[in-house]
What does this fold into?
Amino acid sequence: MPGQPAIRVEGIVRDKRPPATYVVELANGHRVFARVLLKQREKMPGIKLGDRVNLEISPADFSNGVVVF
It folds into this structure.
């Protein structure tokens, strides 16, 4: 589904997995694997459990997302 915009949502970090991958729970209870892009890893402080993060999720795959700032 190229050309469709990404879905932006907010969630809470529930689990940390290496390398720079997190399990984020959305408001509806759905859990998503979220990763941080390599270029953004240097700019951001560490993400901890319980932090609120913004995600971009592809409309084609609701199980994976990217943390955006």
Observations:
- The beta strands are 7-17, 21-26, 31-35, 52-58, 61-68.
